[in-house]
Write a structure and sequence with these properties.
CATH class of the largest domain: Alpha Beta
Number of strands: 7
CATH architecture of the largest domain: 3-Layer(aba) Sandwich
CATH topology of the largest domain: Rossmann fold
Strand content: 5-15%
CATH superfamily of the largest domain: HAD superfamily/HAD-like
Helix content: 40-55%
Shape: globular
Radius of gyration: 17 Å
Structural class: alpha/beta
Order of helices and strands: EHHHHEHEHEHEHEHE
Length: 235
């Protein structure tokens, strides 16, 4: 069996991987819709648009309720509400801090690639206690022409890391992100923090783990096309 090339870099999605900000951004967006448009938006309305970037996150729900957005102003208001909501409430997901530290200690190059805007990326990293200096590259949705499930954001992250995509592991929680990672030519680890394992496997995950605490078992085995036993299973 042909072995995969060694993994030299890890590209983390942010929401559902390093932290779980989706309920808070949905709360912020829902508040924006209610205060400006009087629309009875529900948190579950945002579920189909997770991982697609804030423009689509807001726009998809606006279409459902027949709202004509003012994109720049509405996104800015949503973020202003969001940055207030996350104070003291947003926490790193299990294992996130240790996984980043372990990966750095092993000499792996690290990136965060998120469809969200930079204001949300900076706010989240600050709140969960991860310094941007821990990462060799940070990529946001505004830097690429096409959002997930297109591969652009992961291709850009690999480029910033100075690595071919085949040498990178993408860590994602959403089907659109896994599809983007596979389309970029990366290996993909799916975390079941937002979607069921079967959904992530169907989207292209090579490995499945509950969270980064369990996925730490994978470190040190990334040059072999099978995960470590216990906690992580191969699709």
């Amino acid at each position: 069996m042909k072995l995969l090339p060694p993994c030299r870099g890890i590209i983390f999605d942010m929401d559902g991987v390093l932290c779980d900000s989706e309920p808070l951004i949905a709360e912020a967006a829902g508040r924006m819709f209610r205060e400006k448009y009087g629309a009875p938006v529900q948190p579950e309305d945002f579920q189909p648009f997770i991982g697609t970037g804030e423009a689509r996150f807001l726009g998809g729900v606006a279409e459902k309720y027949g709202v004509r957005l003012e994109p720049a102003a509405d996104k800015a208001r949503t973020y202003a509400i969001y940055l207030e909501l996350i104070r003291g409430r947003l926490r790193p997901l299990p294992g996130a801090l240790d996984f980043v530290a372990d990966s750095r200690a092993r000499g792996l190059r690290l990136a965060v690639a998120t469809s969200a805007d930079r204001v949300k990326l900076d706010g989240n990293l600050r709140e969960i206690g991860l310094s941007p200096t821990l990462f060799d590259a940070l990529v946001t949705g505004s830097e690429v022409p096409r959002k997930k499930p297109h591969p652009d954001i992961f291709l850009r992250a690999a480029e910033k890391l100075g690595l071919p995509p085949a040498d990178c592991l993408v860590v994602e929680d959403a089907p659109s992100g896994l599809q983007a990672g596979r389309a970029a030519g990366c290996r993909c680890l799916g975390l079941t923090t937002s979607f069921a394992a079967a959904v992530l496997t169907a989207a292209g995950a090579n490995w499945i783990a509950a969270d980064l605490e369990h996925a730490r078992l994978l470190l040190g085995k990334l040059d072999i096309p099978r995960p470590a036993a216990g906690g992580v299973r191969k699709s």
